[in-house]
Amino acid sequence: MGLVRLGFGRQHLCLLKRSFLLLKLTAVVFAVLLFCEFLIYYLVIFQCDWPEVKTAAHGSGQKTLKAMFLADTHLLGEVRGHWLDKLRREWQMERAFQTALWLLQPEVVFILGDIFDEGKWSSSQGWADDVRRFQKIFRHPQHVQLKVVAGNHDIGFHYQMSTYKIKRFEKVFNPERLFSWKGINFVLVNSVALEGDGCHLCSEAERELIEISHKLNCSRELLWWLRPRLILSGHTHSACEVLHGAGVPEISVPSFSWRNRNNPSFIMGSMTPTEYALAKCYLPYEDTVLVTYCVAAGFLVVLMLVHSGLLVSPFLFGWNLLRKFKTT
């Protein structure tokens, strides 16, 4: 009878140890997933602040507009997009965008081209699926404006561009070329059609710009027949800056996709009708996430080896070493 009770006690103790190990493994996995897939976006984007314009808006009676500028999201399509790559990249962009909306509270968001990776050759069904995924990732409250500009991956390069692809894009995204808010005018340009070779689509794009210039009472001798104080463009995947002949700065908005950069970023702009200030907000390094997962995996392996007796517990090893040092 005593042997039976002893055997039952050992079996019960072994079951408790296994349950405790499973609990520890589950807690570690949950904590790592919570940090790498949720908390890291808040920790990184929380460090971003809206830049201040030189002339305070409240002092001049002007209202400051807070705008986010991002580009090159490159949502993968049905041809080149592996399902695992899609799942990972789109989850990263969704968490980054939704976290930025919640923390930074922008009033308007501009996405400057190359929204999709295969828009230039996607089928009708593939296009519809890409649009559905885009609307899920970049969902936003009604009080936040979202303005999208076409890129070469959306409608094709100059020699691939067609009226059908442009109309398909404009059917989903508002085709307005002039957007004004708080006294600030934004001209949304299809730069793919600015080849200047007199093609039908190029002539139409130039005609639209001339109409806008008439609305804004600008001179044809000025840059693009307008007089911008700042030009923002996509496609280069970086944040380089160049100056045009009229001294107008052009800033290339960096890529928002982890497929193009290890730590993507976007531009934050504080703007008034007379002044503007820009700042760059970085997103989490992918290397940080990968290293965290590798360290967590190594820790889980050590836990299982210690539990199975194949590896001495570091605490027990340290205690025995300390006792041995004291006895000597």
From TrEMBL:
Residues 66-239 form the Calcineurin-like phosphoesterase domain. One of its GO terms (biological process) is GPI anchor biosynthetic process. Belongs to the metallophosphoesterase superfamily. MPPE1 family. It is found in: Endoplasmic reticulum-Golgi intermediate compartment membrane. This is Metallophosphoesterase 1. Keywords: ER-Golgi transport, GPI-anchor biosynthesis, Hydrolase, Manganese, Membrane, Metal-binding, Transmembrane, Transmembrane helix, Transport. It holds the Pfam family Metallophos. It is a multi-pass membrane protein. The chain crosses the membrane at residues 21-44, 290-317. One of its GO terms (cellular component) is endoplasmic reticulum-Golgi intermediate compartment membrane. Interacts with GPI-anchor proteins (via the GPI portion). Interacts with TMED10. One of its GO terms (molecular function) is phosphoric diester hydrolase activity. Metallophosphoesterase that catalyzes the removal of a side-chain ethanolamine-phosphate (EtNP) from the second mannose of the GPI-anchor protein intermediate. Participates in the glycan remodeling steps of GPI-anchor maturation to allow an efficient transport of GPI-anchor proteins from the endoplasmic reticulum to the Golgi. Its main location: endoplasmic reticulum.
